[in-house]
Amino acid sequence: MVKAGFYGEKKVQRWKCQQCNKRFAEPQAKPFGTDVRLPAEKVAMILKCLVEGNSVRSTSRLCDVEKRTVLNLLKTAGDYCERFMERTLRDVPVKELALDECWSYVQKKEGHKHLHEKDDDSIGDQYVYIALERNTKLVVAWHLGKRNRDNTYAFISKVRKATANERFEIATDAWPSYIPEIDLQLSDRANHSVVVKVYEHIVEEGRERYSPGRFVRVEKSVGSGVPDLGRASTSHVERKNGSLRQWCKRLTRLSYAFSKKKENLRAALALHFWYYNFARIHSSIRVTPAQESQVTDHIWNFEELMSTL
Predict the structure, then answer these.
(1) CA 63 to CA 60: how far, in whole Å?
(2) Mind listing the pLDDT tens digit for each residue in 242-291?
(3) Which label site among 79, 215, 263, 295 has the fewest CB atoms less than 10 Å from its CB?
(4) How crowded is the C-beta side of 22, counted as CA atoms within 13 Å?
């Protein structure tokens, strides 16, 4: 083989076989190791638009690509980010965990489902379970599904795999499935406290008020173990829910930007949580949550993510 010039803007080396006279180019690394034919810079730009709160259609206009291309990249990147986080976030030391659920829906709300769609878990209301480390701001685990005992079990299982075998505090709201599942799976390492925020119930002009009423008090109780009720709080993870709705367009309320397929919502969430943990500097700790938790020693970017197999 002998060199036979270059082609393309990146000057890719071409070769020629002296026996059969066939020409070929050196194989090029593709984003995420898949058949993505866009340049890596364009793929990174598309993903940056998505994680900063742009919709699929606005991203396609800004990056001059088809909507289907954006969705395909979202699905590819989301699946990869989910596997990456499951592989990376293992045995992470934690001190104070806060758990909460963020409501969303796919295709239609639960009350609008037809009779033949009643048992279809892929449409209707969906809940994003989030486990946030209060001090490092790291999302150690997340889960998407209905608000029931089975999904709570799957979520707590992810929390157990992600956390180290050291004693820590865990605070949740009053969702009944938390108490038996945490007692079953985390009783050897967690002190569980239940935090309930009570609001004043207000009815305006014969109808229930949409926004929450005036805050009244916080009620704290013991779920299991010997928790420090003075430190128990779910405010940090509730604030994370607000950031999730701001940065992930699919969870923006009172708009048309909702998911039509559950797999697309799952991919968007995986991409968001990877970006939040590894690539975005948190204003209160001045580094990324993954750096603060010593999971990594640098700030990641999409180019590095695409080349990590």
Answers:
(1) 5
(2) 999 999 999 988 778 899 999 999 999 999 999 999 999 999 999 999 99
(3) 215
(4) 3
Amino acid type, 107: Q
Longest dimension (CA), the chain: 88
Pairing mode, if any, of strands 190-199 and 168-172? parallel
3-state secondary structure of 148: coil
CA distance 65 to 61: 7
SS3 133: strand
Q: List domains and CATH numbers for the chain.
A: 2-31 (no CATH), 40-307 (3.30.420.10)
How many DSSP H helices and E strands does the chain contain? 9, 11
Torsion sign, CA atoms 47, 51, 56, 61: negative
Long-range contacts of 29-32 (CB under 8 A, 24+ apart): 29/307, 31/76, 31/306, 31/307, 32/76, 32/77, 32/80, 32/306
Cβ atoms of 119 and 135 closer than 8 Å: no
Three-state SS for 15? strand
Written as six digits, the tokens of 37 are 């034919």
Give, as one character, the DSSP assignment of residue 101: E
pLDDT grade, residue 208 (50/70/90)?
A: low
Containing H/E element for 222? strand 215-224
Q: Where are the alpha helices (DSSP H) in 89-234?
A: 149-162, 178-185
> At residue 69, does pLDDT exceed 80?
yes
CB 177 within 8 A of CB 152: yes
CA gyration radius, the chain? 23
- Residue the block writes with tokens 């999730």: 244
Instruction: Please give the Cα distance from 80 to 100 (Å, whole number).
Output: 24
User: Residue 262 contacts by C-beta under 8 Å, 6 or more apart in sequence?
Assistant: 106, 122, 123, 126, 144
